[in-house]
Design a protein that fits this description.
Layout (H helix, E strand, L loop, with lengths): L10 E12 L2 E12 L3 E5 L6 H8 L7 E6 L11 E4 L6 H10 E4 L11 H12 L4 H14 L15 H13 L5 E5 L7 H17 L3 E4 L3 H7 L2 E6 L2 E7 H6 L4 H13 L1
Helix pairs in contact: 3-4, 3-5, 5-6
The structure holds adenosine-5'-diphosphate and magnesium ion.
């Protein structure tokens, strides 16, 4: 850290220089991402720009080739990190588990366990992975399910639910892990248009409650409304970042301008 870098005591996540290739395809070319406590960051960019790979890297579903990730109540200060991984060095199973303990992912296609009831889907991580008492995990799960209007679906299987209901279960499953950071990967893009609103309104409520989150989305209106900061990626780099109103309302970079214009014409 140079003397010009102020210590930022409110960072939950601080990622630096993340790189990742799949074979000869270089997907991330040095991604920096800071997220402050209670902040909502919208990650936008064209298909194939590396957005999903960034989220998956923060959740230990992909292991970057290089770069660092720090988590903590104050990840920007030397004593405030409770996890620091350097992907340039050896990263083991325990490191990946520690990463997964701090972030939780909501997937584009919900990724619920098809053979498990709603309640089991939600309690599986807390009980099996986090080793929390089953009764406590179930009570938490039911409280969270009621919050999104799905308590009466506790014994249903995913195939018996609408896409919007499945995604609300996906969100509850992430919340049940009590993560420091929620990661949403295009949470509404697989939904029929009439079901998008119910999921966006849950995410908006979580933002208002102060959850810290990174949301990959093409819903630019939603991003403008809910996100504090927008990060625009293209070709594995961050092209532009800043307050949502600035990046979406008055983008500076040509690539950002083109992208925002194109998306707005699609809707
Ligand atoms: P985005 O979410 O912005 O659409 P992704 O992160 O999904 O972008 O993908 C970026 C690039 O990485 C794409 O070219 C994609 O084909 C490639 N990619 C992603 N995951 C894998 C993987 N597991 N194996 C090989 N290539 C991958
Ligand atoms: Mg993606």
């Amino acid at each position: 850290m140079s003397p010009t870098d102020p210590v930022d005591a409110s960072l939950v996540l601080s990622a630096r220089g993340l790189t990742k290739s799949f074979g000869s395809n270089t997907v991330l070319r040095g991604i920096d991402l800071d997220v402050r406590r209670g902040q909502v960051v919208a990650l936008i960019g064209p298909s194939g720009s590396g957005k999903t790979t960034v989220l998956r890297s923060l959740n230990g579903l992909e292991v970057p080739d290089g770069g660092t990730v720090a988590f903590g109540a104050s990840a920007g200060s030397p004593g405030g990190k409770d996890l620091e991984l350097d992907f340039g060095g050896a990263v083991g199973k325990r490191d990946i588990a520690a990463l997964r303990d701090r972030s939780a992912m909501v997937f584009q296609h919900y990724n619920l366990f098809p053979h498990m009831t709603v309640l089991k889907n939600v309690t599986e991580g807390p009980v099996q992975v986090q080793k929390r008492p089953k009764a406590e995990a179930q009570a938490d799960a039911l409280r969270l399910l009621s919050r999104v209007g799905l308590a009466e679906k506790r014994d249903a299987y995913p195939f018996q639910l609408s896409g919007g209901q499945q995604q609300r279960v996906g969100i509850v499953r992430a919340l049940a892990l009590k993560p420091q950071l929620l990661l949403f990967d295009e949470p509404t893009s697989a939904l029929d248009p009439e079901l998008v609103g119910e999921v966006l309104s849950v995410i908006k409520e979580l933002a208002e409650e102060g959850w810290t989150m990174v949301i990959v989305t093409h819903e630019l209106g939603f991003a403008r409304h809910v996100a504090d900061e927008v990060v625009f990626m293209d070709g594995g780099v961050v092209v532009e970042r800043g307050p949502a109103a600035e990046v979406l309302g008055a983008p500076q970079q040509e690539r950002t301008k083109q992208f925002v214009k194109r998306i707005q014409h699609e809707v």
